[in-house]
Structure formats: C-alpha cells, structure tokens
Amino acid sequence: MPRSGSKLWNIECTDEGCRGCKKRSDTNPRYKTCTKLGGQIIFAEVNRSAGDATFSMSKRMGMRWLPGVRSKIMKRQTKAGKVICGICHKPIKFHRDKKIRYVSKSGKEHIESPPIDHYNDDWIVRLRRLETKSAFIQASLTRQHQLKLAIYNAEPLRITCRSCNLGRPKC
Question: Which of 21, 73, 75, 101 is the most buried (most CB within 10 A)?
Fold first, then answer.
C-alpha cells in the first residue's frame, strides 16, 4: 500500500531494454538505481495529467544551453554596442551583467538572461524530425539525450526581447 503523500513518477533508466515505467517515491528518484532493470535512473518526472499543458517540454527533457552559446549569439547580434532583438530589431534593455529585468503580475521582480529563440525550424519541429530517424530510434537513452542536446544548441538561434519571444507563434 503506497504511503500517503508519496508521488507517482514516470522514470527511464540507462538499461537498453528500458521503455519507461512508473515508481512511487517521496523524493525525486533521478540518479538512483532502477528496481526493475538495475540501470541508473536518468529521467524522472512527476506523473501529470494529459491536460497539463503548462509543463515545459525543454525542462522535462533536461535540455540546456551549452557554455558559450548565448555569448556567441549576443556578440553576433550586437550593433553599436547594443544587443538587437532578432525579431523586432530594437535594442534589448539590460539590467546588470547582460540580464533583463521585469516585474511579473504578482509584483515579483525577475532578473534572467534574455531568451534564445529557435527559428527556421522551431525546436519542436527539429525534435520531431530527429525522432523519426532510425539512428535515433536505435540509440541508447544516453545517446538519444546527446543527440537531442546537439540539435537543441544547433543554429539557427537568435536572442530576442522577452515580449517578442512570448508573443510569437510557436508550432
């Protein structure tokens, strides 16, 4: 009988035969040993309803920008000492240390790096194309993650102002 308060997790491990399963745990089981196949758990997310559209796909897959990607794009988009938005072509206003600042509806101040935008094709289009290739399908989970990370950081990329990135249609 599961303890009250424990969460149901969707997990995947490094074992070649792993097709994903569920595990009940109070804490995130990532990097622990899978009790079913014995591999290290490399993916764990709380089991969510199908309608939970607010959960970020990039966070779910552990995607991240590799070191130097943002600075390379910012250098390329700098004109007369100002970083120009790749969509509206207006200068991006920075706060400190090349960070943007905004106040959310709740009144909380946020300071973050300017968003990087995938275009020609969007990230989801790139991912769908990769997932249909036989080399990806036959690869181990670790190799699949490496391939996803490579296309996540592949050009074309651009720095955008926050309002342009949030306002543009995504696939």
Answer: 73
> Nearest-CA neighbor of 14 among 124, 131, 146?
146
Query: Helix crossing, 141-152 with 123-131: angle to 10°?
Result: 150
| The Cα angle at residue 157 between residues 154 and 162, in degrees rounded to 5 | 140
Half-sphere exposure of 18 (CA within 13 A, CB side): 25
CA distance 91 to 78: 9
CA angle 110, 112, 114 (to 5 degrees): 130
To which residue do tokens 């309002």 refer?
Answer: 163
Tens of pLDDT, residue by residue over 8-61, are: 888 887 777 777 788 888 888 888 888 888 888 887 877 765 444 334 444 445
DSSP classification of residue 72: H
Query: Could you tell me if 41 and 12 are in contact, meaning their C-beta atoms sit under 8 angstroms apart?
Result: yes
> For 94-152, how does the pLDDT look when each residue is reduced to its tens digit (9 = 90+)?
877 788 888 888 999 888 888 999 888 888 889 899 999 999 989 888 788 889 989 99
Calculate the CA 112 to chain-centre distance. Answer: 15
Amino acid letter, residue 3: R
